[in-house]
Amino acid sequence: MSSINILFITPKLPKKDSEVFYVFIKEEIEELRKSGYINGIVFNFNYEELFNALTQLLRVVTVNNSIEIVHAHFAVPYGLVGNTVARILRRPLIITVHGFDILMDKQLGYGINRFSIMRRLTRFILSKSCKVIANSLALKRECVRHGVPPSKVVVIPYGVNIQMFYPMSNSELEEKLPANLMRIFKERESYVNILCAKRLEKIYGIEYLIKAIKVLINKGVKNFRTIFVGGGNQFKNYLSLVNQLGLSENVIFFNLVPRKIMPLFYNICDFTVVPSMVEGFGLVVAESLACGRPVIGTSVGGILDQVIDGFNGFLVPSRDFLSLADRIQTLIQDDDVRKRMSCNARVFAESHLDLRKRILRVIDLYRSMIENDA
């Protein structure tokens, strides 16, 4: 099979280990290249320097006349750029929607489509695409609400590198853990460690998890602590809430950490909580399951595609900190349930969340589009 030449139009992708924003796009493109079937040209479009970006893009397009497909990540603004390039080259356009570009919550101030002009622009851009990749069923439903025919939307769940995210043995952890995590690891016999690896922002429902922790303390549940990893613009507010509720002994905050460290966090914890109010896919869920750690998640967005209630975790209503507290208490106190769900978590991840399987489906989509375009 001959290689396919793809022009990827993306936001600025991370170059350093310490940079984590849009790392999932970077990892997908790297895996596509490693497959041997894809020649990928990546254009990081910086819309804040519009003139320079357009000049550079025109140079890329004129030099690389072998481009067969234009693949843009996010409907706006990168899909708009992708549509322009695809029309110039007369090549098919694929758009992958992720969440912020298609979902919205006016109350939380989330999503560009809370503005009517952006909704119209999104509908227009999606109508010009040949195919739309949705990372979850929730994103597909939102695309259909924006006027995209269901047959044009392909649901391909995001995946993780299951060779990077996997259950580690105690001896392996002892070799790899930095000093600050080793202390937490050595205290595992005394504590159940709960991980929340979401940005400290309102849309991720962190305040409801903190309130659930308070409920558990009031009920006399002991010997557990919650580790927050991610930093964010609400850090001071959440730290203040933790102190007001007297939870400083039960909560540890970490800022953003390099991607390579995250498997260690999952492995030193017993399960993960994802209390989001909006979630396009929920990569944290996939990473946790791949590490054999059950997930308690809210019944929103892409979490519903990954957590099977009672099998590899629990589902709770969004904003319901009492239900969240009940499910956390179950996993704290019932070792048998937690161990069973841990086994199921890894099995589910291997079957449904392996990045390599997503890559094969994306390549199949590319090939089908080229055949239809021939």
Would you kindly provide a written description of the structure presented here, covering whatever features stand out?
- It contains 15 helices and twelve strands.
- It is of the alpha/beta class.
- The protein folds into two domains: 4-159 and 354-373, Glycogen Phosphorylase B (Rossmann fold, 3-Layer(aba) Sandwich); 170-352, Rossmann fold (3-Layer(aba) Sandwich).
- Strands 2-1-3-4-5-6 form a six-stranded parallel beta sheet, with helices on both faces. Strands 9-8-7-10-11-12 form a six-stranded parallel beta sheet, with helices on both faces.
CATH class of the largest domain: Alpha Beta
CATH architecture of the largest domain: 3-Layer(aba) Sandwich
Shape: globular
Helix content: 40-55%
Largest sheet: 6 strands, parallel
The strand line-up of the biggest sheet is: 2-1-3-4-5-6
Number of strands: 12
Q: Strand percentage, roughly?
A: 15-25%
Overall number of domains:
2
Order of helix and strand elements from N to C terminus: EHEHEHEHEHEHHEHEHEHEHEHEHHH
> What is the subunit organization of this protein?
single chain
Broad structural category: alpha/beta
| SS summary, helix count | 15
Radius of gyration: 22 Å
Q: Which residues sit in consecutive blocks of at least 5 with pLDDT less than 50?
A: none
CATH topology assignment of the largest domain: Rossmann fold
In CATH terms, the superfamily of the largest domain is: Glycogen Phosphorylase B
| Average pLDDT reading | 93
Distance from N terminus to C terminus (CA atoms, Å) equals 16 Å
